[in-house]
Structure formats: structure tokens, C-alpha cells
Specification:
Distance between the termini: 14 Å
Radius of gyration: 20 Å
Oligomer: single chain
Number of strands: 15
Structural class: alpha/beta
CATH superfamily of the largest domain: Medium-chain alcohol dehydrogenases, catalytic domain
Bound molecules: zinc ion
Number of helices: 11
Strand content: 15-25%
Number of domains: 2
CATH topology of the largest domain: Quinone Oxidoreductase, Chain A, domain 1
Order of helices and strands: EEEHEEHEEHEHEHEHEHEHEHHEHE
Length: 341
């Protein structure tokens, strides 16, 4: 069967791989129909993903149809049903797992990163990793996983309807955080350096937007929060400067949540941690509750799916599309690959 494979940094091609074996007793075989490229697939292609090894089949944002059932799969899963997938693993024994925080498992292996992903015709998946919805299209299903990452950050921030939440970065992850905070009826301020992405942020639920290249972020935040600063800052950029700005601009007794990986060590004025008595938290991957929350949000129909998916290409066009994204990262929010023929 056909697959997309990143063979080394900067090189992605269509390959033939052996047909899949029958699913295990607890697995289903999925016919893969939609896959979104993740930012991590892009960094793998660029040779900048420290967690990836080559060769690697990318892809973990999945819309698929159940094609075959293992012998022990519960009756709720049926052949022909459309599903989406949680692409993470957990060992069930590390301290994170023991605390019920499976999303942060020390030994997590994400599809397309530490193990092969979904950009192939068929995959076998444990049934516990499946979610479904009778209302969502396959394109919406493939959009659920990237949005769960932002929803999880909002969950980590304990955002309520009384909060003003600033989201740094309006790529897919930031847009998920904007939608998640908006779904909790918080006031959402979206920050980016690209007006097109800020327009998309408004469609996802941002009340106000700030282009931090064109105007002073500090001044705008002071105006918008009556000199207090936002209660919650969510960082979805991954630069030392944005990490610092979060603790500088958040209000006293505020919360800061980091999703991005800073690409270099960060110099902090640590007295701000103490003076403001900040809660500073990391946010990694997502929990099953986050998948359910995103599915419910997309089912409500308020999310601008068609605007977030910049383009949809065929499997044959997928390697070139990844290279094109690498050349113009600002122009593209999300590329979907359709495997339906
Ligand atoms: Zn674990």
C-alpha cells in the first residue's frame, strides 16, 4: 500500500510499504481518508524536531472509516463507522499516568513523531483510542486533534467566564486555545504578527486582536484590561521573548500556560513569579475530555472549519504540499490530505 514518508530532513516521498496485518484482538483496522499535517510534521521535514527519527511516516490528525474489527472490540464500534483517533500512547505506570495525567506520560509515543503515523492507506489502532460523532464530516474529524491541544491548555489555565485570556500565536494550536477559552465564555485577546491570522482568530471567537508588530502589546493590553493585565496568558509561539512577555504582562495572581517549546533557554525576571504569585503551567498533548469538548464545539457549528483548512491535496500531491508549507509557513494554517479516490 502507498504511504508518505519523510526519509531525511528536507526529503519527503511516496513509497510502497507492506500491506497491513489483520488487526489485533483489541484493535480496529482503519481506512485512512483525511489527514492534516501538524506543525510537528513540518518541523520533522525541516530537520528541527528533536523527538523524531528517520525514516518516518508523518501524520496524526486523522479522519477515517472502520474497515475491520478485532475479536475483542466492543459492539459500539462497527465497520463503516467514521472515527477520529487520539494519537498518543501511555504506559500507565509513570508518575504522570499514576496521577491520571495520561497526556503527559513520560513514555508517550505520538504517531508520526516517535512512531509511524497515519499518512498511509490503512492503520491498525486500539479501539480505546477512537472517538466518533454522527454530525462531523471527515475534514472536521481530522481537525479535532490539533484543536484539543489548545483546549487542553485552556483546561490547564482553569479559565472561567470571569477571565480575560490572552493567546499568543494564532496558528492552529493558538486558534484551538482561542476557541476553547471562547467556549468557556471568557473574554479572549488574540495576539499575532500577521493580520490574516488575526482575522481567523476573530472567526474562532477572539473578542479583540493585537498585531504586536504594528502596535505596542503592553500599551494595548493596559488599555484593554484597565491597567491590570489579563488573568490568563496562553503561549503558543515558542520563542524566549514570548515566554518572558507572558510573565511580564499577566495580572497579579494570574495564570500562565505554555504550550510551545522555547527554541532557546529563557532569561526570566524571577521576582515576578513571586511578587505576582503566578501559577505557571506547562500543557502537553490532550486528555480524552479535551477530545469530547472539541467534538461538542465543532458539532455546535460555530467553528470556521473551511477557513482554517487552507488547502486540501491528494496523496500524490502531499509531499510537494509539505515542501510548499516549509517555504511559506506564514501563508498556510492547515493542509489536509485526502486519501479518498
Ligand atoms: Zn506513563
Amino acid at each position: 500500500m502507498k504511504a508518505i514518508r519523510i526519509t531525511e530532513a528536507g526529503r519527503c516521498e511516496i513509497v510502497d510499504i507492506p500491506d497491513l496485518e489483520a488487526p489485533g484482538a483489541d484493535e480496529v483496522r482503519l481506512k485512512v481518508r483525511r489527514v492534516g499535517y501538524c506543525g510537528s510534521d513540518l518541523t520533522s521535514f525541516r530537520g528541527l524536531n528533536p523527538m523524531v527519527s528517520y525514516p518516518r511516516i508523518p501524520g496524526h490528525e486523522i479522519g477515517a472509516t472502520i474497515d475491520s474489527l478485532g475479536t475483542d472490540v466492543p459492539e459500539k464500534w462497527q465497520i463503516g463507522q467514521n472515527v477520529l483517533v487520539s494519537p498518543y500512547t501511555n504506559d500507565g505506570e509513570c508518575t504522570a499516568c499514576a496521577a491520571g495525567r495520561y497526556n503527559a506520560c513520560r513514555y508517550n509515543q505520538t504517531m508520526g513523531v516517535q512512531r509511524d503515523g497515519a499518512l498511509t492507506e490503512y492503520i491498525n489502532i486500539p479501539h480505546e483510542k477512537l472517538f466518533t460523532s454522527e454530525k462531523l464530516s471527515l475534514a472536521e474529524m481530522a481537525l479535532v486533534e490539533p484543536l484539543t491541544v489548545g483546549f487542553h491548555a485552556v483546561s490547564r489555565s482553569e479559565t472561567t467566564a470571569h477571565d480575560t485570556v490572552m493567546v499568543f500565536g494564532c496558528g492552529t494550536i493558538g486558534l484551538g486555545a482561542i476557541a476553547g477559552a471562547s467556549a468557556r465564555n471568557a473574554r479572549v485577546l488574540a495576539v499575532d504578527i500577521d493580520d490574516k491570522k488575526l482575522a481567523l482568530a476573530k472567526l474562532c471567537g477572539a473578542n479583540d486582536t493585537i498585531n504586536s508588530m504594528k502596535e505596542s502589546l503592553h500599551d494595548q493590553l493596559q488599555v484593554l484590561t484597565e491597567g491590570k493585565g489579563p488573568q490568563v496568558m496562553i503561549e503558543a509561539v515558542g520563542l524566549p521573548k514570548t515566554f518572558q512577555t507572558c510573565v511580564e504582562e499577566v495580572c497579579f495572581a494570574g495564570r500562565v500556560v505554555y504550550i510551545g517549546y522555547a527554541k532557546a533557554p529563557v532569561d526570566y525576571e524571577t521576582k515576578l513569579f513571586v511578587m505576582k504569585e503566578l501559577d505557571i503551567r506547562g500543557s502537553r498533548n490532550a486528555m480524552p475530555e479535551d477530545f469530547k469538548a472539541v467534538i461538542a464545539h465543532l458539532e455546535d457549528g460555530d467553528f470556521p472549519t473551511n477557513s482554517v483548512i487552507t488547502k486540501t491535496v491528494s496523496l500524490e500531491e502531499a509531499p510537494a504540499a509539505l515542501a510548499q508549507w516549509s517555504e511559506n509557513p506564514g501563508e498556510i494554517t492547515k493542509i489536509h490530505v485526502t486519501l479518498d479516490t
